[in-house]
Design goal:
CATH superfamily of the largest domain: Aldolase class I
Order of helices and strands: EEEHEHHEHEEHEEHEHEHHEEHHEH
Largest sheet: 8 strands, parallel
Distance between the termini: 8 Å
Low-confidence stretches: none
Number of strands: 14
CATH class of the largest domain: Alpha Beta
Radius of gyration: 19 Å
Number of domains: 2
Strand order of the largest sheet: 3-11-10-8-7-6-5-4
Helix content: 25-40%
Strand content: 15-25%
Mean pLDDT: 92
Structural class: alpha/beta
Number of helices: 12
CATH architecture of the largest domain: Alpha-Beta Barrel
CATH topology of the largest domain: TIM Barrel
Length: 363
């Protein structure tokens, strides 16, 4: 009988519970949530995107305010726990290098990086023990990252997060791929990436753990992907409705009230589609005329303030502060299954218990 989950081993880093809390911006995955998750024995992730937003400094110096925001969150998380704390950094941000170097300086345990291919990530982390974990949505992307890192930097990813089409927030798929299974199921993608990784795990090369993400809701899901060969999973949406998540109650209540028909795919200034809960703002954005926006900091590489329909950072920040009618509320495809607010401990106790029960059923 299995009575304990195997830890997620990433190089010399041991995550006792093989669950990574996904990074959710803007200001959703902050120190209070990441610290509580890490203190339980899983891995807590701070989302680095626009952590200076909402402060006067953000309008004056976006790069500086973002850096100081990330420093503050990592340091605060370290006061909460001695557990594993990492940072999620979007490739699409203009201050990518600065945020990576800040995470290194503050001794984050790992950097998870997606919303683009993090082909230069090792360049900014030389000499650091920080673990580098790209997010991919295809075996082709995984292979390209591995080959590029090996050729340029003589290193491999420390792990790979494979994110499927059921995730919340920004998605690494074309809009038409999100309405057709067509080989894009997470199960299919994990199998494909495992096959790619196996080619590189030879000789003296270290193991590259594959972590499944996108639409994972309960212990049954966790057990299924562990049995498929994933070493761990990443879960994001469910952590929003925890007491330790610092977003406004209106944000959490939007999750609890959500129905399946409320979930929509939107265009984002990041240059990717995104999954969100329908709000009055989204209805206006999708159906109304474009409104001029003001941008003093140009935080996203693909974003042209003269042509985009809205500022994604402002819309996400409105959600965090509870101004839901003027917000984008990102969420995963299973958000309608959430019915209550619980503590991080209650949530993880439940998921771990369900996982063990399911693994024992499978024998």
């Amino acid at each position: 009988m299995i009575n304990k989950l195997n830890p997620l081993i990433i190089g010399d880093l041991e995550i006792k519970i093989p669950i990574i809390q996904g990074g959710m911006g803007v200001k959703v995955s902050t120190a209070s949530l990441a610290g509580a998750v890490a203190d339980y024995g899983a891995a807590g992730t701070i989302a680095s995107a626009a952590l200076g937003i909402g402060t006067p400094e953000n309008e004056i110096d976006f790069v500086k305010s973002s850096r100081e925001g990330l420093e503050r969150e990592i340091r605060q998380a370290r006061k909460i726990t001695q557990g594993v704390i990492g940072v999620n950094i979007l490739v699409a941000v203009t201050n990518y290098e600065d945020l990576v170097k800040t995470a290194v300086k503050e001794k984050a345990d790992y950097i998870i990086s997606g919303a683009g291919l993090p082909l230069k990530l090792p360049e900014f982390t030389k000499g650091s023990p920080v673990k580098l974990i790209p997010i991919v949505s295809s075996a082709k992307a995984a292979d390209l990252i591995i080959r590029t890192w090996q050729r340029r930097y003589d290193r491999l990813p420390d792990a790979i997060v494979v994110e499927g089409p059921l995730a919340g927030g920004h998605l690494g798929f074309k809009p038409e791929e999100l309405v057709s299974s067509n080989g894009n199921s997470l199960e299919h993608l994990v199998g494909d990436v495992l096959s790619i990784v196996k080619k590189y795990e030879t000789g003296s090369n270290p193991s590259i753990p594959v972590i499944a993400a996108g639409g994972i809701f309960d212990g049954k899901d966790v057990a299924r992907f562990l049995c498929l060969g994933a070493r761990g999973v990443q879960i994001a949406t469910r952590f929003v409705t925890t007491h330790e998540c610092s977003v406004a109650d209106e944000f959490k209540n939007k999750y609890i009230a959500a129905r399946e028909e409320d979930i929509v795919i939107i265009d984002s200034p990041v240059g990717m589609p995104g999954r969100a809960i329908r709000t009055k703002f989204i209805d206006r954005m999708m159906n109304g005329p474009r409104m001029p926006i003001r941008c003093g900091y140009q935080c996203l590489k693909p974003c042209n303030p003269k042509t985009v329909s809205y500022c994604i950072n402002d819309a996400l920040f409105n959600a965090v502060t509870g101004d839901i009618d003027n917000a984008v509320v990102f969420a995963g495809s299973n958000v309608a299954r959430i019915t209550k607010i619980v503590s991080v401990k209650e949530l993880l106790d439940e998921i771990v218990s369900e996982t063990l029960e399911e693994l024992n059923k499978k024998g």
